[in-house]
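Notes from the 1:1 (GR / supervisor)

We went over the backlog. Supervisor wanted to see one worked example end to end before approving the batch request, so GR pasted a single chain during the call. The sequence is below; no edits were made to it. Supervisor asked that the structure be written out right there so they could see what the output format looks like.
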Amino acid sequence: MTAAVETPALAEAVPPRKLVPPLGPVPRVKQPTSAERVLPSGLRVVAVRRPGVPLVELRLRVPFGGTAASHPARGSVLANTMLAGTAEHSQVELAAELQSLGADLSVSSDSDRLIVGGAVLRTGLGALLRLVAEVLETASYPTREVAGERSRLAERLAILRSQPSVLVGEALNSRLYGSHPYARELATPEAVQAVTAAQLRKLHSDRVRPEGSALVLVGDLSPARALDTVEAALGG
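Structure output shown during the call:
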């Protein structure tokens, strides 16, 4: 056998080896300015200054896990109808108030928590927090709105449960978690249709509490003043 001979063209095609440059110093990360306070009600509030855009985003997390078989259905309907009206505003009036502030507000839930999220221009933070307080304290769950949202949610769940990926996910969760609530991420359409407005009002009264809840504000704000604004709106 004859040894392979490297041709000049092949040698030119192979790029020369380059040494990897040494690592530089670890950059120092500037931590944002923040402040934290636990209100007398037990609500923990964290405000973080993040300038750049004159907006403030908020996330309120309320412990909301439950072991009852009906809890996923009731939690889902509650999250979908919490903004359907309060003691002071109807659903349309509440939406108009948010629109006048240039704000958005939403509610969602999972196996562990209820989440209220929103964003608003810096100048409207106090007004948005007052609306959040109104929803948390006096959400009315009108029977008509609950019935309509309940039917829409049941229809969406029926469509989801017809998809193989969802069925596989449920089977996996059942295998992983057994009888634990984590195994029941999605409610059944039948359980959702059985939820009543009265049950939602009781669930809200029992579970939407400040103790153990946490509110985080991030945006173009003064952390100390933001905490005062939160306490004025949600101190109760």
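Supervisor's comment: The radius of gyration is 26 Å.
Batch request approved.
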